[in-house]
Design brief:
The chain contains seven helices and eight strands; from the N terminus they run H-H-E-H-H-E-E-H-E-E-H-H-E-E-E. By secondary structure, it is α+β, with helices and mostly antiparallel strands. The structure holds adenosine-5'-triphosphate (ATP) and magnesium ion.
Length: about 240
């Protein structure tokens, strides 16, 4: 595929991903208007519709971040005065997926909740990174499994490390999963929904805005995938 066709393909794919949940919401509203949803199922359906809307918002937010920070001349945020506190922003991100996780009997477990590490930078951006990663675990993780999230300041380097680990389908190191539009071959078989945008946005945000690194590996012996985010100049704010 040439670059132009690739872009068209990507846009078609993303549009499809945005329209699907919106159609779900429309369906729910129609059913409420014509009275085909019983009173006792109403709240549950409204809850799902809300989750679908939220999903579409994160997708569009990814696109906005891509427009802002992608390409060769990104609009880098000015020296940020904001501070991101870990694990708060991880816990918020995990809560977003509560319902989808429940549906697959999965749990997202944040370790070391009582230690507060922090980093200079916008919490909205780091939350988006984390949400894209958890979204993937919900899609590609094993039913009934737990996703473990941990964070610490590495003593020697002062780097803030965030590590996410969980059982999932495999990917190989040759598959360049952080590149725009790249999906693993096993992912294609697992779910048709996806355009290879999520991890690319993670990489843009971590590298260009937090000046850090993000990496992933699949450990076939334990059948787990591990994502590691490493950002310079983390600091401890509180330890209870
Ligand atoms: N937790 C995971 N477990 C196994 N494979 C993963 C995991 N996260 C990502 N991958 C692999 O990396 C690929 C790229 O992920 P990315 O989030 O960029 O795209 P996507 O999930 O396919 O689509 P999108 O995020 O745009 O909906 C996935 O298609 C999958 O092959
Ligand atoms: Mg994804």
């Amino acid at each position: 595929m040439n670059k132009n066709d690739e872009t068209k393909h990507l846009i078609a794919n993303i549009t499809h991903q945005a329209i699907n949940p919106l159609n779900g919401v429309l369906g729910t509203i129609d059913n409420i208007i014509d009275g085909t949803i019983s009173d006792d199922r109403r709240n549950q359906r409204l809850g799902s519709a809300r989750a679908q809307l939220e999903y579409t918002i994160t997708l569009i937010r990814n696109l906005a971040y891509f427009a802002q920070y992608g390409g060769d001349d990104p609009q880098i945020q000015k020296a940020s005065v904001k501070t991101t506190v870990i694990p708060q922003c991880l816990i918020e991100g995990a809560m977003f997926f509560q319902e989808q996780a429940d549906n697959k009997r999965m749990k997202v477990y944040v370790k070391n909740k009582n230690i507060q590490n922090a980093i200079k930078g916008d919490p909205d951006l780091l939350r988006q990174v984390f949400m894209n990663i958890v979204d993937n675990y919900i899609k590609y993780g094993n039913e009934g499994s737990t996703v473990f999230v941990d964070h610490w300041i590495q003593k020697k380097t002062n780097d803030l490390i965030i590590k996410i680990e969980g059982e999932s389908i495999p990917f190989s190191s040759e598959e360049r999963i952080f590149e725009l539009g790249v999906r693993g071959k096993d992912a294609e078989g697992k779910t048709s929904s996806g355009s290879g945008l999520g991890l690319h946005i993670c990489k843009l945000i971590i590298e260009k805005l937090f000046f850090g690194k993000i990496s992933a590996e699949y450990i076939s012996g334990r059948k787990v995938s591990v994502f590691e985010i490493r950002m310079p100049n983390g600091f401890v704010t509180e330890s209870r």
